[in-house]
Design brief:
Blueprint (H helix, E strand, L loop, with lengths): L4 E3 L1 H14 L16 H12 E3 L8 E5 L6 H15 L6 E5 L3 H17 L3 H4 E3 L3 E4 L4 E6 L13 E5 L8 H7 L9 E6 L6 H14 L8 E5 L4 H6 L7 H7 L9 H13 L4 H8 L8 E2 L3 H6 L10 H7 L24 H4 L4 E7 L7 E7 L8 E10 L4 H11 L3 H6 L4 E3 L6 H12 L3 E8 L4 H9 L4 E4 L3 H16 L3 E2 L4 H9 E5 L5 E5 L7 H11 L11 H5 L5
Parallel strand pairs: 3-9, 3-10, 4-7, 4-8, 8-9, 12-16, 14-15, 14-18, 16-17
Antiparallel strand pairs: 1-2, 5-6, 6-7, 11-19, 12-13, 13-14, 19-20
Length: 563
């Protein structure tokens, strides 16, 4: 028993045996069978109940378990709650299950209640009530708690089970319950969750866990277990999340409660619908994701226009429009028959009617003007001719800094005419106005839509020049319809973007943010990512009269096709 802690093998075995001896499973193919712990679960239970302090109390007072769905998360949490309630044998014990909603808290509570009902031993000792589980011999109780901390005085918790931390709006309730443990001899908080979005309380707790595992924070009373696909590989390898390797790394219950065919099927569906990819990543692979949802399938985006041009330059296009940033090699073959089509659109579309979308962003970054040409007939092709503008900066170092920050070679894009560099270090609105007036000589501009942000000057100039100008908001009300429409015509290969390299980069960067009603709007996946061309395209579609004629989104009309 040297040192601060020792391992009590007898206590560890007793905790592991508690599950099959006293608990019965109640769902699916295992209903009615003893709760035999899977090896990874048995290791966790042995660790958290076997390691002791010199005074004989448990070492670990806070336990974090991060695992994907279907890995018996709630079943394990319910079993631990009953072990704390019965196994500790603490008179007047109080074990609470806390969650963000009453429904979520009751999942673990109901699991525990059903285990008690089916247990040949505990059913004689405990009385499941509507509001809790009462153990008369100990005067102990287990209850579910949700909502705010206010009004929950008089608690004296001996154990806490926290479920789905990634959904907690705050940890005020958890902090309040934890502070009630001061008189308990060996309280334990058992916190279990899947991954979520990189913000909020759950992300803060997860970062704490990573810091503990990395040795950055010293917390000898905290136990951390994370089963996850490799976050670094997910960032660096586009298709890593679709592999069996990622599935196996993240699902410790694979082959038992987790079925490989099920996850493969969900991944295949998500590959066809990028909006579903983040859900698969966080719920089935335990990967934390950005606030927004991945949107465009770049393989389908790249196919747009290929059929019209007989597939010319497909191999070369795959090479120059690949997923490698920064992109100096992309422009070496940009004059191939397919990849420079955008540079011929002025001649191809001369005299055609169009709407124009303008996204000016900040005064020092990329600005975009996109000319969108509606279909000539129902089911036809929509064309987009983008124009991009960027302040050159005061010197070469300014441009190098932008390229490094944004991981995109602006200078190479400018060299092939895909980007207009303007003098100075702020957006040159006069240059943008002159460029629009020049294109007005080529096209029949019906209307110009401008993002309200920082647009008063150019909006006034364009109005005075005789153009119809509409100030276009970027909230859900304005953006949902044209955003879904753009998604649909890309999936149908009816959006010809001319393989413009800067617009493609924007398309790779764009994500969508959704509200509870499934309304959506484009947002940046990361702060440094530029999406101006896609936003301008959506604005141009949104101010037109034609985009609502083709019916609902392909996802809304037929759902996701599984291959």
């Amino acid at each position: 028993m040297d040192g601060k802690y020792y391992y009590d093998a007898k206590a560890a075995r007793r905790a592991v045996k508690f599950f099959p001896k006293h608990l019965r499973l109640f769902e699916g193919e295992w209903a009615g069978q003893p709760f035999e712990l899977m090896p990874w679960c048995a290791e966790i239970i042995s660790d958290i109940f076997g390691w002791k302090r010199q005074d004989g109390t448990r070492r670990f007072r806070v336990v974090y378990i991060w695992i994907p769905r279907k890995n018996s998360k709630s079943t394990l949490a319910a079993g631990v709650a009953l072990l704390l309630l019965f196994g500790d044998g603490e008179p007047g014990g109080q074990v609470y299950c806390i969650a963000s909603t009453e429904e979520q808290a009751e999942i673990v509570f109901n699991f525990a209640s059903r285990m008690v009902d089916m247990s040949p031993t505990m059913s004689r000792e405990a009385l499941p009530l509507k509001t809790g589980i009462w153990v008369e011999s100990l005067g102990a109780v287990r209850r579910a708690l949700t909502g705010k901390a206010q009004g929950k005085h008089g608690l004296n918790a001996s154990g806490v089970v926290g479920d789905e931390l990634h959904e907690w709006p705050s940890d005020d309730l958890y902090t309040f319950v934890k502070q009630s443990q001061g008189t308990r001899r060996q309280p334990m908080d058992f916190l279990i969750s899947t991954a979520g979005k990189r913000d909020g309380v759950g992300w803060e707790h997860y970062q704490l866990c990573e810091a503990i595992l990395n040795g950055e924070i010293h917390a000898e009373d905290t136990y951390v277990f994370i089963a996850s696909a490799d976050p670094k590989r997910d960032q660096e390898e586009a298709n890593y999340w679709t592999t069996d390797e990622a599935i196996k790394e993240s699902n410790p219950a694979l082959g038992h409660t987790v079925k490989l065919d099920f996850i493969r099927s969900e991944i295949e569906k998500a590959k066809q619908n990028p909006r579903k990819q983040n859900d698969v990543k966080r719920y089935l692979l335990n990967l934390w994701v950005d606030q927004a949802t991945v949107w465009l399938d770049m393989a389908k985006y790249d196919r747009c226009g290929l059929d019209l041009f007989g597939g010319q330059g497909v191999g070369e296009f795959a090479k120059i429009a690949g997923d490698v940033d920064p992109l100096p090699v992309i422009y070496k073959s940009v004059t191939s028959s397919y990849n420079n089509r955008w540079s011929h659109f002025r001649y191809l579309l001369q005299g055609r009617a169009c709407t124009v979308g303008i996204d000016l962003a900040s005064t020092t970054d990329l600005a975009s003007v996109v000319y969108v040409f509606p279909l000539d007939e129902p089911g036809g092709v929509w064309y987009a001719l983008p124009r991009f503008f960027l302040p050159r900066g005061e010197n070469e170092e300014d441009m190098k800094a932008r390229i490094k920050r944004d991981k995109f070679d602006y200078q190479a894009a400018a060299d092939v005419g895909a980007l207009c560099l303007t003098d100075g270090d702020v957006t040159d609105y006069a240059a943008i106005f002159r460029d629009i007036e020049e294109h007005a000589e080529w096209f029949d501009i019906r209307k110009i839509g401008i993002d309200r942000w920082n647009a008063t000057q150019i909006a006034t100039q364009l109005t005075n020049a005789g153009h119809e100008v509409e100030m276009f908001g970027q909230g859900y009300a304005s953006m949902t319809g044209p955003t879904k429409f753009l998604e649909r015509i890309i999936l149908q290969k009816r959006f010809d973007h001319g393989a413009h390299p800067v617009l493609r980069w924007n398309a790779r960067n764009v994500a969508v943010q959704k509200d509870a009603a499934e309304n959506m709007k484009p947002v940046k996946g990361e702060a440094s990512k530029r999406i101006d061309g896609i936003v301008a395209t959506i604005i141009a579609i949104g101010i037109g009269d034609d985009f609502t004629e083709d019916g609902p989104s392909v996802y809304e009309s037929r759902g996701v096709i599984s291959v």
